[in-house]
Design goal:
Two copies of one chain form a homodimer. With 225 residues, chain A is of the alpha+beta class. Chain A has two domains: 78 residues, Winged helix-like DNA-binding domain superfamily/Winged helix DNA-binding domain (Arc Repressor Mutant, subunit A, Orthogonal Bundle), CATH 1.10.10.10; 97 residues, SCP2 sterol-binding domain (Nonspecific Lipid-transfer Protein, Chain A). Chain A is 40% helix and 19% strand. Chain A contains ten helices and seven strands. In chain A, the strands form two sheets. Chain A has a five-stranded mixed β-sheet. A two-stranded antiparallel sheet of chain A has the order 1-2. At the A-B interface, helix 1, helix 2, helix 6, helix 7 and helix 8 of A face helix 1, helix 2, helix 6, helix 7 and helix 8 of B. The structure holds a DNA duplex (20 and 20 nucleotides).
DNA sequence: CGGCATCCATTTTGATACTG
DNA sequence: CAGTATCAAAATGGATGCCG
């Protein structure tokens, strides 16, 4: 049962010893937007069986990146949340996502699964702190039946699963239109004009929303295309 | 021969499909400081067999992250270098290293291998752009028989394997003392005072060197540990 | 629903031997 | 040195059954 290790005295290698196994970083990605239940995690990660999911969670728990909590009443059901150490993987995962947005996205393949939260995290990955100077606003995103909110405070952006208490603005958009935002390089305002999305709330907050996120220019990895 | 994929339309998952397999990110880490030959790569990565190394390199080549080059005369021997897409994984790897410096380092275990380049990359990971405002300097680091140089230009730091053309300052340090810098939380000036390191060159450049890198405070992942 | 155990087919890996 | 070929040992994926 000796776990595999690179046996290198190196910060990168030691980190990958902890979170480099298959599925582990995606598990952390799911938890970055808030605690999740066992079943919800499995539903988000097609191909990950219950056995491996349980093993990964236990591993992360032993290593102090995740802890098991009991959701407050009336739910009272178990769930998994990131510890402080786990939360701090956020910047690393966002850096990976940023690379992917630039070099690996393109069109959605039909066999690929999709969850709105992934795009919301993609938004966070291309959040531009400069553009948010002096801005304090909470945006709520409603995608089909899923809800997220982003809290912008000056140079920081925090994205969480679930509704906001008092959003300054609310954006409603279909899942398909959301996919189009990264894949086809569309913008939110275009989606609103075409009727695929709608927005309401504070006009000034909505005006500034456009500039908060800058999608990196897509690059081609293959020489002759 | 279908390669395994998460099949998720998500920037993080797509990136991990490309570089998430075992050894792959460490391979990129090795190449971040400049082109390397097959044998040197294998020597740096104990446990990675020639077969898997060849497979990984071929994969990265197919995916446009690495390209095979021929070293200029008199070497004329094949080597591997990062493409632009590969280079841009640097920020992601540095983010991973930053996390590791804070949450996963501690003492070196006796069975762990070590190469000076890993610490030099660790330095780059905790480079503080603010502290380098207005600074343009090239530092050469000599560690036993390995040489690196760091080029600081205002807010950017570039670290490469090999000697510099015209370094502003040169730091010589033993491998053991270098390990002590991250593990025991020592500082470079202490190492110099104790005789484990020596520095020469431009006094002003050396004075500013101290503040360029701020090691993150070590955190404890285990609750009562 | 949450979570562990078991069985089994398929991949991935690690280690070593071998060739140009 | 660079890289292939080969084989044994893990890790994974998927199905299924069980129990609180």
């Amino acid at each position: 049962m000796e776990q595999r290790t690179y046996n290198q005295y190196c910060a990168t290698a030691r980190t990958l010893d902890l979170v480099g196994e298959r599925w582990t970083l995606l598990l952390v990605r799911e938890l970055l937007t808030g605690p999740k239940r066992f079943g919800d995690l499995q539903a988000s990660l097609r191909g990950l069986g219950t056995g491996l999911l349980a093993a990964r969670l236990k591993h992360l728990e032993r290593e102090g990146l995740v802890h098991k909590i009991t959701l407050p009443p009336p739910a009272r059901t178990p769930a998994y949340a990131l510890t402080e150490a786990g939360e701090e993987l956020g910047p690393a995962i966002l850096a990976i996502a940023r690379w992917g947005l630039r070099w690996a996205m393109g069109e959605r393949r039909p066999e690929e699964t999709f969850h709105p939260g992934w795009t919301v995290l993609g938004l966070q990955a291309c959040f531009d702190p400069e553009a948010a100077a002096g801005l304090h606003a909470v945006y709520e995103f409603r995608v089909d039946d899923e809800v997220f909110h982003a809290r912008i405070d000056d140079g920081t952006a925090e994205v969480l699963h679930g509704p906001a208490q008092r959003p300054d603005a609310t954006i409603t958009i279909s899942e398909d239109a959301l996919v189009g935002l990264t894949g086809a390089g569309g913008t939110l305002s275009e989606a609103i004009r075409s009727g695929a999305a709608s927005a309401s709330g504070d006009r000034e907050a909505l005006r500034r929303l456009q500039g908060l996120f800058r999608l990196p220019p897509a690059g081609s990895r293959k020489p002759a295309g």
